[in-house]
Amino acid sequence: MGRAPCCDKASVKKGPWSPEEDAKLKSYIEQNGTGGNWIALPQKIGLKRCGKSCRLRWLNYLRPNIRHGGFSEEEDRIILSLYISIGSRWSIIAAQLPGRTDNDIKNYWNTRLKKKLFGKQSRKDQRQQQQFMRQATESNGMKQEAAAGDATGSSGMPAVTYNWHHQAMAVPVPPVPGTTMEGHRIGDEVDESIRKLLYKLGAGPFATLPLPQCTPPMYEGSPSLVPPSCTVDTTSLNEGGMQASSALPALELDQSFHFNQVKLDGLDCLFGMGADQSLRWSEVSPLVCPNNAVASSSQGMQQYCLVDESANLGMK
DNA sequence: AAGTACACCAACCGCATGAGC
DNA sequence: CGCTCATGCGGTTGGTGTACT
Length: 316
What we know:
mainly alpha; Arc Repressor Mutant, subunit A; 3 domains; two-stranded antiparallel ribbon; 45% helix; 3% strand; DNA-binding
């Protein structure tokens, strides 16, 4: 026995929204709000749409201050950082990017960012790269430094490539750790309720954005480099195991990492586990941890410093 | 020029959860 | 305490436009 449908599918219109429908929905909500009942809303305004569909349309397109497309490097970085710490919880990630919707971020991740990160270039990107290389060849006789110079992405040229392997190293490191393009620390933007939600959801110590806290593999056990409560030696991940220092309750840590292991399926290579070992922490770190871009990679120990948020949240 | 492949993204679907009764 | 219903969320699909062969 299946679940009862949320609306009568036979009498409900599906597919793309027309401008008239958009206008109806938008003007009604702007004047009256949703009334706390999405199911009843389409009937009230004479739309032959499912309530869920109305809600989605409003949240993703009609709501004020929605931005589409044109993700910045900074946004890329935030998305990646959050994805690494909490997985595919797009609504939470979206909450950190004003004007972005979870659907937008999800689409962006699935269609572009993932490829960018794992080195699979889209044809568009390949073309951009080829075009650039042609131009460079024509004008400069293929001078290497010309390409390297533009790789920063700061000149109006398309970045030399969107291939993550190149770009990660090319991403300019912001002057202030964890600073967004508007000059706010990301941590400052985190709504308290979201923090609580993250904690509740099992993100636990991950509830703090990793940007300011993560430490590159060059760390070799110096306590002075470790922010308070707990650390995780991810070298054990390479052995298929997980160990934690005593400061973090083992169960919680296990759950957190179980969650992340599941959710991060496909990100294995970030930890040197994947078949494609071409991605190294030194390449990832500038993107994930701009403040720690120093990473000289080869020492093997990937150290995440986890801040116990529970005290901050008044949960202890 | 036509057919095919690919990229992108809007929208749908179904599950999980919480609120209300 | 259990049921029902509405909402929110993440995964997936389908349509459309564009590039390639």
